[in-house]
Amino acid sequence: MMRKQTPWLALALLTLAPAALAQKTKVDAPPKKLYCWNENGQRVCSDALPPEAVNYAREEISAKSGLRTGEVNRTLTAEERAQAAAEAAQRALDKAAEDTRRRTDQAMLMSYRTEDDLRRVFNERTAIVDNNVQTARYNVASLREGLISLLQTAGDRELSERPVSAEMTQNIRLRHAELVRQRQLQASFESQRGELDIEIEDILQRYRTMKGSLPADSAPAATTP
To answer: Where does the UniProt annotation place the signal sequence (predicted)?
Structure first.
């Protein structure tokens, strides 16, 4: 006849299980830390981060060792995020422009044997801008003379106590507005002309530098027109 075994081992395991589980939970629990931030000019530290301080810059400090374990920057405002995005985009554009410039420099060396060959590339652009400048200057001078004539006529009519017609008043206004526009165009074209001179000189300087750095036997071959 078999004896019935007392489940002492099972009872022991059941007794120890909660303690072991508690010990494991204690071991696995994340280490406590303090949060420190500035609020209204005062340094504040707490073992819990209140909702109003979530967006503040803060330090994280180990409650056990007292050493700093981390740092969190403050949350950027919408304007600051937009500014950061714009700056990142500008950096990308600058890098792309620099890459394009390097490729352009290499192509320039391969395409133009002499500086005179390179200068001829700019002749057409220079001629177009010069023509725009001269046309704007002519238009400004012409409009100015016409406006002076109209103003003199209107002044003579007023001095002789004759009314200035609505049509003449409108013509004076329109001619003045067009004169202002043509002056703006003239200033823009003259600015473009100055910038073009700077651009040409910069490219020529780069070309001379690159040509000077090439070995004598590696000069680019002349291109066939």
So the answer is: 1-22
